[in-house]
Amino acid sequence: QVQLVQSGGGLVQTGGSLRLSCVASENTFSLYRAGWYRQSPGKQRELVAHIWPSGTTEYADFAQDRFTISGDYAKNTIFLQMNSVKPEDTAVYYCGYRVGFNDYWGQGTQVTVSS
Fold this sequence. Notes:
By secondary structure, this protein is mainly beta. The chain contains no helices and eleven strands. The protein has strands at about 5, 10-15, 20-25, 35-40, 45-50, 55-60, 65-70, 75-80, 90-100, 100-105, 110-115. Strands 2, 4, 5, 6, 9, 10 and 11 form a seven-stranded mixed sheet that branches. Strands 1-3-8-7 form a four-stranded antiparallel sheet, with no helix packed on it. The radius of gyration is 13 Å and the shape is globular.
């Protein structure tokens, strides 16, 4: 299976920006729907944003006006640009992609937003 390696997490102040990256070991994001998800302690993993091979995107309500998902398919990479972050954005963020009904995930990266 394709390996997904994430980077870009860390500590950021409220109102700041962060960019997460997810690099696939081979051509992936031009073929399959991919996305970013997040999970906070005691909560379900939730959608942040999806991106399709066509470039079509969709966002969770909390992400619609602040986050941007994009892809550089030639580099087998998708990104999540996070702007105007809030403390409630604190979570482990995962990239993933779907093949049929099977989901595949990166290792996750912690994003912590300080007040």
